[in-house]
Amino acid sequence: MSSHAEEELRAEQQYLVHAHACLRSSRAQLLELAERARARPGDEEAVAWLEWRAEQLRDENKSPLFFGRIDGPEPRPCYIGRRHVSDEQDEPVVIDWRTPMAARFYRASPGQPMEVTRRRRFGFAADGALTSFDDEPLTENSVSAGLSELVIAEIERTHVGPMRDIVATIQPDQDEIVRTELASTLIVQGGPGTGKTAVGLHRAAYLLFEHTKLRRSGVLVVGPNDLFVRYISRVLPALGESQVVHLSVDELVAAKRKPVPETAEVAALKGDARMAQVLAAALWAGVRLPTEDTVVRESSPYVRIHPETVRELSEDLVAQRVPVARARAHLIERITAHVRRELETRGHAPSDADMRRIARAKSVRELAASVWPTVNPAQVLVDLFSDADLLGRAAEGVLTAEEQRLLLWPSAPASVGRAKWSLADRFLLDELASLVEPPTRFGHVVIDEAQDLSPLQLRAIMRRCVDSATLLGDMAQRTTPWAAGSWRAVAEHLGVPSRVLQLTTSYRVPRDIVRVANSLLPEISPELPPTVSGRHVPGALEVQASEDTADSLVELLRAAEQHPDSVGVVLADDRFTAVRRRLAAAGITAGLPHEDEAEHKFSLVPASLAKGLEFDHVVVLEPELITAAGQDGLRLLYIALTRAISRLTILHTGELPAALAAAR
Ligand SMILES: Nc1ncnc2c1ncn2[C@@H]1O[C@H](COP(=O)(O)OP(=O)(O)OP(=O)(O)O)[C@@H](O)[C@H]1O
Fold it and tell me: Using CA atoms, how far apart are residues 568 and 242, in angstroms rounded to an integer?
């Protein structure tokens, strides 16, 4: 390092010390203000807010206060960090990565420098000490040198434990998506490792920063399974965002008992959007208008309500299929208003207290409940699946006779409580429950692995969201029989306008591995463009033929034991138990990743659970057995191959699947 560079480094280190001092002083000021406010009675709200702000400014030294700097367009350099820091004069010392000024750090490029003359990225040691920087001069004539070394080092830093944030190294194509306005519902199609999950989570953090209303309504992140949700759930808290709820698809329709399995054919039918029509028809078939007069005896004098009046008062609620609980409440309000008008016409002047009593009156409540009887979604579904005539009426013109036959249970359960529900049934119950009382809604929803969701699952998620969502996925990684099948079909079920954006550069997967994975695309998703890789890692791909793959695996893992890299062995689902035992017999512990708080050095991952995960070194064990898993076999293999950050070893004993053999 030249003496000039050393001097610069020292100056940056001092700036970091200064930033820490400013942060501490701001926090001390806030705590002092909170102390003073506490002495004033009635200022509890201000105290809570000041304490919350002070908590946010706690200097825990978990991550560096800034990670980058831009020179220009401001007279002073701008330092970019995970949160804002200002000095005693309230001048910014570090600006939050989500501000418009910070966008230039991510977006400025040679050719389009956006008035930035230089981008600087900082390198830090594990203890938080600033140890290096990397400069990129930006002028209209400069040429892009590809990913900076610090970005590559960040991507290749050993991956053990849950996913971490990428705030220091977000790439321009990703930043565009992160900062798209809240009103847009986005569908992000991207190949493996293009950063979809990371982008979705950073978008949530960005939107929470930009829109205070989201802080009240919150953000929901939905992932495919518990394993995956645990893997990603620490990213947003690390970015200081706690108003986010993470749920797996199963948790969304919380069930106490484990769902019962069912055939792919039945599950796909139950996930079909037409089922929503059938359920609505079944539920609304229960709506009955009265045929006789009702006498409201709680008013003085009595008021008689004719069936025709009830029809007039509830007509629009029925026509618009207003959710049952709400419709009933509206009708009670309307009947009460009707009673008031009747009494006034007859020369009486009922007080507000009289009217409140009438709104609570038994006769009025019973009348509303006779139009919209109390519905138990489980009872509706049990009746529907146990009674061919009932199902026939609800599904008329919607489902074929054969489809109706598929839905019917061979025998009805002894009681509703004894009914056994599949995962798809749980979404039908959720659909029915929403016709009675819509669920609480979040300001924005991020849906990961959206390519795998059924139309009914998409509906369930979208009704939990106020107006916009971010869907992330890769059609080539689609592995569920109930999936909508294309982004166009997905868009149809969202209920809001949406647009599809593409990410095509993989930051995770090295070039040689991407090439092999791309060779499967013509068979699994010919409509998609091949992924390109931003990184070349010499020796990233190794293919080993072996007489006994388990023996070879033991040997390979023993050699890896001393190395800090995470290792994930992806294998056919039905090989999991046998291989785990074989490894245990050899004294090697391996289990599902993130299974418990103690992370295993070696993860053993059934191919059907590998989606979304990643490891420094991936071993794909016996690919020929993974592809044998039915029509999704090739997709599972595509997913397995692309979990690698630095190395992929394919251990096979039989013939390699044709596409792999050709691409070697
Ligand atoms: N800009 C970036 N800087 C550093 N790391 C990145 C960047 N973009 C992506 N990564 C890393 O690449 C890996 C893949 O990211 P992510 O899981 O978000 O991709 P994905 O598109 O969801 O992949 P998949 O489809 O395989 O699940 C992660 O480790 C992520 O941290």
Answer: 30
- Per-residue HEC secondary structure of 646-657 comes to EEEEEEECCCCC
- Is the bond leading into 73 cis (omega within 30 degrees of zero)? yes
Calculate how far, in angstroms, residue 68's C-alpha sits from the geometric centre of ligand 1. 20
Relative to beta strand 294-296, strand 303-305 is: antiparallel
Q: Say how many Å lie between the CA of residue 640 and the centre of ligand 1.
A: 15
pLDDT score of 143 more than 70: no
Q: Kindly report the three-state secondary structure assignment for every residue of 69-98.
A: EEECCCCCCEEEECCCEECCCCCEEEEECC
Q: Which atom of ligand 1 is nearest to the CA of 477?
A: 25
**How far, in Å, CA of 141 to CA of 120, rounded?**
18
- Provide the ipTM: 0.98
Each residue's pLDDT tens digit, 68-100: 999 988 889 999 999 899 999 999 999 999 999
Please tell me the residue having the least CA distance from ligand 1 atom 31: 166
Gap from CA of 165 to ligand 1 centroid (Å): 10
Give the Cα separation of 391 and 400 in Å (integer). Answer: 11
Residue nearest to atom 14 of ligand 1 (CA): 193
Q: Is 154 in the pocket of ligand 1 (CB under 6 A)?
A: yes
For ligand 1, is residue 451 a contact (CB within 6 Å)?
no
| 631 vs 551: CA distance, rounded Å | 29
Instruction: Verify whether ligand 1 is closer than 6 Å to residue 68 (CB atom).
Output: no
**Stated pTM of the model:** 0.89
Other CB atoms within 10 A of residue 368 CB: 20
**Tokens, residue 195:** 């950063």
- Ligand 1 neighbourhood includes 566 CB (under 6 angstroms): no
Out of 43-47, 170-174, 266-270, least confident range: 43-47
User: Which tokens belong to 357?
Assistant: 């009593």
C-beta of 195 in contact with ligand 1 (< 6 A): yes
Mean pLDDT of 318-328: 89
Is there an atom of ligand 1 within 6 Å of 194 CB?
yes
Name which residue leads in pLDDT, 112 or 505: 505
CA of 643 to the centre of ligand 1 (A): 10
Nearest-angstrom CA–CA distance, 605 and 617: 13
The model's pLDDT over 245-302, given as tens digits with 9 standing for 90+, comes to 999 998 999 766 788 999 999 999 999 999 999 999 999 888 888 888 888 888 788 8
